[in-house]
Amino acid sequence: MFRLVSSLALRLIHVLYSLALALLYLRRRVGGRPRPLASRRNKIPAVLGLLLVYDEERTCTQDLVDSLVQCAEGAAAWCRAVGVKQLIVYDRQGILRTPSVRARLQLPGPVHGDTLLSDNLYPITPPLSDDPDSQTPPLSDSSDTETVVASALSGAENSTVKSRRQSSSRHWSQRSWASRKGSVNQESTLSFHFISRDSGKPAIAAAATTLRRNETFLKLADQEYGDLFQLTVSDLQDLVEGDHGFPPPDLMVVHHLTPRKQPPTPLELHGFPPWQIRLSEIYHNDLVGFQWPFLSYTKGRARKPYSVFTEQDFCAALDQYAGAEMRLGK
Amino acid sequence: MLEICFRLRIRCVSAYVFSIDNFKRSQEEVDALMALAEQSFAELIQYGNILQQYGVRLNVVGKKQMLPPNVLQAVEKAEEMTRHNDSAILNLCIPYTSRDEMTTAVQEAVHTSLEHGGATDVITEKDIDAHLMTTKGGSPPLDILIRTSGVMRLSDFLLWQCSEDTQIQIVKTYWPDFGLFDLLPIILDYQRKVWTA
Question: Which among A258, A204, A132 has a CA at the least distance from the CA of B102?
Fold first, then answer.
């Protein structure tokens, strides 16, 4: 009996809570509009991330692809208008990374070479080809590993992996390679990264595998080498954010494409790469796409299968970013 | 708040106490905070009733070697006192950043792979996950992350753990004032998610 009463009480609390959320939603929808795109803001993100969320259990339809393309192109145009330098567009399944979809995209700037996929490994040395359109080459088989790692040992620039054998420095950063590769025109005002879930945890695991294989080679090469492998945050940062990765977004916008049937739900990150989001300002665009028939504010959007990211959404995100204070631990 | 959580049978609570980046503050402030930490751990050891009452295991998660020796000693004593408790877990992250945790996990995954050898030298996401400090302390997957003070950033806290389907709740209330009425809608949101899954 007590359980039944508790269960009914809990249900009643949930009904009241849903009504309260609906009222809050209405209040936010009729609230102040964001400032126009051309408004002067005290700060603009240099790197902007756009996380596009859709129902993965639904079949990927042409409508979804069209909506993703429209979101990416719209964001690109607005980013260029306000002076954003890099746009990172994330969709979990990597639909925007498929060749057929990439071919459709009309973008006003270069796209960075495909960010590392989980089944590729980070090459320690520059690739064989300087073709700016080439895919990131996988670490080749063991017969080539020796040459690859030896070349790395001879080059010493940025970060080094700690070792008691200080005479050799292992070079993980690929920045010198990028300047020769020329895949990104440094004079472009806006460049792009298209990423998926594979660009996150699987990429960090791939970096770990590369480091592990390198250690095996070094131990084989020098039987006296008994130092424990040590890795610093800077080392891993160079790998994950370097030329085979992507930079951390200053502002990350989470936008729901698939209409939802419940009041605004809490923010989730849907597999977005964890390394890069440590200090990102997050704007959760959770006011879009509800299909409650008795709420008219979304009628224009809700009738479409997907809610496309709009200029108004973009401006609201910029307004939030402009008002954010960064203390950086101090 | 801890007692409320344990009464609600929330099995694991992690709190961000002190960031590695906080060492950038003035030496005076850092010394004061470390003194406060030592005092808090000492009180915990002396009056650890709530932890023993609810069978809570205390884990201090972070780069402990950065702590002053006296604080480290108090930390180790507090952890030892609750090591055999298994009803709930309290992770105190001090001094901590998620990037440091991920880097340490990658490092240790490489060590483990080198030590064990074996047919494969591939390190997977699961290997890295298993070497996270929170996982090694027995923490389950993260269901809810609460950010107080209305800031819309994660500030290098539990990034690996919260990047999938964790509900991230931003509340305007500042931490000392965070109470049951702030927690209640968060619990209701989580229940709605579970019921509609």
Answer: A204
Together in a domain, B129 and B184: no
Instruction: Indicate yes or no: CB of A208 within 8 angstroms of CB of B189.
Output: no
Residue range of the domain that includes B53: 1-95
The answer to whether residues B150 and B136 belong to one domain is no
Of all residues in chain A, the one with the smallest CA distance to B25 is A330
Question: From the list B22, B107, B124, which residue is nearest A329 (CB)?
Answer: B22
What SS3 string covers chain A? CHHHHHHHHHHHHHHHHHHHHHHHHHHHHCCCCCCCCCCCCCCCCCEEEEEEECCCCCCCCHHHHHHHHHHHHHHHHHHHHHCCCEEEEEECCCHHHCHHHHHHCCCCCCECCCCCCCCCCCCCCCCCCCCCCCCCCCCCCHHHHHHHHHHHHHCCCCCECCCCCCCCCCECCCHHHHHHHCCCCCCCCCEEEEECHHHCHHHHHHHHHHHHHHHHHHHHHCCCCCCCCCCCHHHHHHHHHCCCCCCCCCEEEEEECCCECCCCCCECCCCCCCHHHCCCEEEEECCCCECCCCCCCCHHHHCCCCCCCCHHHHHHHHHHHHCCCCCCCC
pTM of the model: 0.82
Cβ neighbours of residue B82 closer than 8 Å, sequence gap 6 or more: B48, B51, B52, B56, B57, B58
| Half-sphere exposure at residue A221, Cβ-oriented, CA atoms within 13 angstroms | 13
Contact residues, A window 306-325, toward B, CB-based 8 Å cutoff: 320, 324
Residue B149 CB neighbour total at 10 angstroms: 11
Low-confidence ranges of chain A (pLDDT < 50): 115-121, 123-187, 223-226, 293, 295-299, 301-302
My answer on whether B52 and B68 are in the same domain is: yes
For residue A127, give Cα distances in angstroms to A139, A192, A247, B149, B197.
10, 21, 21, 47, 45
pLDDT tens, residue by residue, B16-33 = 999 999 988 899 998 888
Judged by CB atoms closer than 8 Å, whether chains meet at B189 and A283 is answered as no
Let me know whether B118 and B54 are in one domain. no
Over residues A144-175, the pLDDT tens digits come to 222 222 222 222 222 233 333 333 333 333 33
Give how far Cα A202 sits from Cα of A116, A123, A240, B89, B163, Å.
9, 16, 11, 28, 13
Using CA atoms, how far apart are residues A307 and A210, in angstroms rounded to an integer? 40
Which among A207, A212, A283 has the least Cβ separation from residue B113? A212
Split into its structural domains, chain B has a count of 3
**Per-residue pLDDT reduced to its tens digit, B43-88:** 877 766 778 888 899 999 999 999 999 999 989 988 998 999 999 9
